[in-house]
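Researcher: Here's the sequence for the chain we discussed earlier.
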Amino acid sequence: MTQRSTKKRYWLYVLGIVTGLSGLVITLVYFSDFLVRLFGIFMTLGGAYLVRISRAPSLVRSSETTANSSYLVSVNRTRRRWVWFLGAISLVASGISFAFMYKDALDGYNHAWPLYAFALSMAVFALTSSYLVGIFVRNLFSR
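Model: Thanks. This is the structure I predict for it:
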């Protein structure tokens, strides 16, 4: 890797950080305006993408990475299993909380906990499924 490409990667990394943070500030300051908030969200996502494609070198040296590569592979496999398990459990929990939410709606909306349980389980499911889709896309394009 040449010095010139390293500089380009760092500038791309800095541009991604600045774009993401400015998008976050725009989203928080102009929260009531839909179009400006949407633009801020897209700026934040674009900044995250720029940071991702910059591939700025991490603080771990390559010799340490190659020495621990078999350990990292086993940790990633174990982590994937736990993410699959957590996603399945949250999907079942969202179905159960949806049933309780339906029953509460028939009774006149007396309790708020089914709504919070549904929101929490769907948030966990969204996080786990996005992690698994990210792994799938990374493996798809790395070959």
